Amino acid sequence: MDVLFYIVMVFVGFIVFIQIYARVQGLMKRGKEIPPIDGKIGNALAQNATTLLYFYTPTCSACKVMTPVIDRLQTEFKNILKINLASDLEIGKKFGIMGTPSLVLVKDNKIQSFVVGAKNETFIRKLLNNHQ
């Protein structure tokens, strides 16, 4: 029984460590210049003062829940871009995306917010309204 307890505690500790690590990495990216990006996404970032980038993959369970929320918000906010990492992996690498879903708020070519994990519509709406 003691061995099982230690195995569970190591597993839980590992999960907590990963969560803390992802949050610290996101905080460290705030204020950094975005890398140069070509194509449609690069043009959109150059034209908009504030842009929310939504990184997802089609096979991600949390993304399947969050993508319809992003689709609804795209009708209201024109500065939201969806980036499928299955086809645009290089852009994900440039931003240092470690997991999906991820939200990166860019304002004036600097990262203002970097969030990993599924978020609800209220959180995303506040994020966009606070940085307009």
UniProtKB/TrEMBL annotation:
The keyword Membrane applies. GO terms for biological process: cell redox homeostasis. The keyword Membrane applies. One of its GO terms (molecular function) is protein-disulfide reductase activity. InterPro entries: Thioredoxin-like_sf, Thioredoxin_domain. Residues 22-132 form the Thioredoxin domain. Keywords: Membrane, Transmembrane, Transmembrane helix. Pfam families: Thioredoxin. GO terms for cellular component: cytosol. The chain crosses the membrane at residues 6-24. It comes from the Bacteria. PANTHER family: GEO12009P1. This is Thioredoxin 1. It comes from Caldithrix abyssi DSM 13497.
